[in-house]
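Title: [Solved] Phage-Barnase-EndoU-ColicinE5/D-RelE like nuclease 4 domain-containing protein 3D structure

Original question kept below for reference.
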Amino acid sequence: MLDLTGLLSLNSRPNFADVDLPVLREFYYTQLYPYTYEFALSSGERIKLKFDLDRFCHLVAIEKTINPQKRMNFQLVKDYKGMGGWNNIYEGKLNKAFIRSKGVKLNKMKDKMLHFYYLPYLLEHGSLMIKYVPSPGRFINSNFIVFNFHLNDNAFIQLGMKEEWHGKWYYPETFIIERKTPAHPTNPYTNPPSTVVNVTERIKHKRFKSNTKRRRIYSHKGGIRGNNPKR
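Solution (posted by the thread starter after getting help):
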């Protein structure tokens, strides 16, 4: 099983047996959560993106996998999403084995987990952004999608971003992997009426100043159990 160091050294997707939710959670906490990303686009828009802790479970499709028909009541679902899911992964209660024990397959999670290592590179080097217009049959509500073609994995790896209600920030709304095949040689999310624009500038900011105490709780084991940061 990969640890954080092993995950950071990848340049192509790992074996599914070698990656699990705890290491991806640690990766998210150390490689994405401490930073914000600002993009300037050739269309004139600017996007400010941040990764709150309560977005992690949705990005790897835990709730969609364990509750595909959306029939669970709120008290059960909250253990697999948002901060409930985040903390259950930390406490060792939520992982691939547990989800399989519920009699469901991990197909919806698999590609997202295998390509999660690529997210920092995508954010720092992806040069194209889709101004996305929702289309019938696609359950994506993102305003923008940053994407890149990863040759080693022969896939378009994409992060959809949705504007928050107050308009100050964008949040990661969906993580999409589209395999390139002879039948599908191009990225379907670029099709009209959506348009593709260039990223003309990007800035990676440290989210927390060194003299600012992060909102976190230390356990007796020295680990970090998160609670939702201020927006």
